[in-house]
Amino acid sequence: MFGLGVLMLALATVHCIPNFTFDTDAAAGNLELDFTYEANEWLTILINKYPSNITTKPLDRSHEGRSIRAVYINRQQEKKIIVVANLHAREWAATSSAIYIIHELIYHANKYPEASEFQWIVVPIANPDGYEYTTTTDRLWRKNRNSPLGIDLNRNFDYKWEVEVSPDDKNPEGDTYRGPSAFSEQESKAIGNLLKEHAQTTTLYVDLHTFGETILYPWSFTDEAAPNAAWSRSVAEEGARGILLRSGKTYQVGTPAERSFKESGSSIDYCFSLNIKACIAIELTAGSYEVQNSTIPLAGQEALAAVLTMAVYANAGNSPL
């Protein structure tokens, strides 16, 4: 099983912390996106060693007061790639993949020369309260922790939030409860503000999820194709090609309605509404929210391969938006 304390396990697995020993008997719940304890040590090492390449910034605080932090790499570049993980708390492999991306772009930057053309903004844990809850109480918890029942952050963005595609969307007990209003939640609002702030200079936004081995593009809320869907599909297909070349796996491409189910108030639809050049969601891994420890790097490798391949393609092409 993908062990408790996913953040530090991911760091240890990819050798980010010299001589780090993961304590499997340690109490779960000591880790949050405030980057305290070993995580803070890891970031401090990175910042001290590469001060011109990496910084961190709090975007906001969660419902329970945890910091929602973004990591900035290559801040001197104007064109941006934004990667967000863990809008859904139980999707630990999305978080570890975001951590893997940060690790590779700093420690092995020379392996990815195309990456240096972009500023990277990575939010490894967009839902820190929910993540914490999955380590202490309910491993399969999906939502945030606003009230005992929580709200699905990927149904809370301010584009077509009001469209009801499932009875659960307006049922507080439902897994996809969208909340009382669009951007009612600090966590989704923090990501929304980040996207809006950088909309004019962002080449690619990627929302990392698990599981399903699919790459998705707008629209999420309807069966109808979004304007210029052919462009979005071509970007997603490039991501699938990048994964195929990296790991030999075949990721399916389509809209959420085609590949899984419709969803209103999603982050990629909100991204598209801001005229960001390419807005993509990736469902990493297959079959389960649980991932074997040994497969953590592979999920990260697939995520980085897809994101970088899509970024290069989107940057080179002329989106019709």
From TrEMBL:
GO terms for biological process: proteolysis. Keywords: Carboxypeptidase, Hydrolase, Metal-binding, Metalloprotease, Protease, Signal, Zinc. Residues 1-16 form the signal peptide. The keyword Phosphoprotein does not apply. This is Peptidase M14 domain-containing protein. InterPro entries: Peptidase_M14. One of its GO terms (molecular function) is zinc ion binding. Residues 33-314 form the Peptidase M14 domain. It comes from the Eukaryota. GO terms for cellular component: extracellular space. Belongs to the peptidase M14 family. Its cofactor is Zn(2+). The lineage of its organism: Eukaryota, Metazoa, Ecdysozoa, Arthropoda, Hexapoda. The active site is at 283 (proton donor/acceptor).
